[in-house]
Amino acid sequence: xxxxxxxxxxxxxxxxxxxxxxxxxxxxxxxxxxxxxxxxxxxxxxxxxxxxxxxxxxxxxxxxxxxxxxxxxxxxxxxxxxxxxxxxxxxxxxxxxxxxxxxxxxxxxxxxxxxxxxxxxxxxxxxxxxxxxxxxxxxxxxxxxxxxxxxxxxxxxxxxxxxxxxxxxxxxxxxxxxxxxxxx
Length: 184
Fold this sequence. Notes:
Blueprint: H1 17-47, E1 48-49, H2 53-80, H3 89-95, E2 106-107, H4 108-134, H5 138-160, H6 177-183
Helix pairs in contact: 1-2, 1-3, 1-4, 2-5, 4-5, 4-6
Protein name: DNA starvation/stationary phase protection protein
Family: Belongs to the Dps family.
InterPro entries: DPS_DNA-bd, DPS_DNA-bd_CS, Ferritin-like, Ferritin-like_SF, Ferritin_DPS_dom
């Protein structure tokens, strides 16, 4: 669905304004999710405790930097298509379709259990966006595919801490962040 905020007056050559509006709407969702994710990752970075503190604390910062770069790339692509990147906190909170991260000060492994669910939501939504934009704009599709690769790698880093010797995730059947944190 497009709105006045996502419908450009012009766009890049070879894409109709209507199709650009669809891509812009998908990119705006990604921008919100990346802005939220980088703040969530910093929250984890600041509130992680326990014997795995330093490993997780230091693992998170490069993810923060990368996700911030993803947000910037998405916002710039959105603008190139003739859209307006809505990057304010109010726009993010008003538009987001997920709850705020629910774990405060906690053990490193508990945070990683919760963070795994966060990454799952981001990756699933990103895959849906790739499918939508891939039918319209290969340049945007390529951008998002590269970001997907990085996000899946970050989730792998997180999951490595949650995996048993038998190859299962300790949080495999968790449906909420709090439940995942407890099971981790």
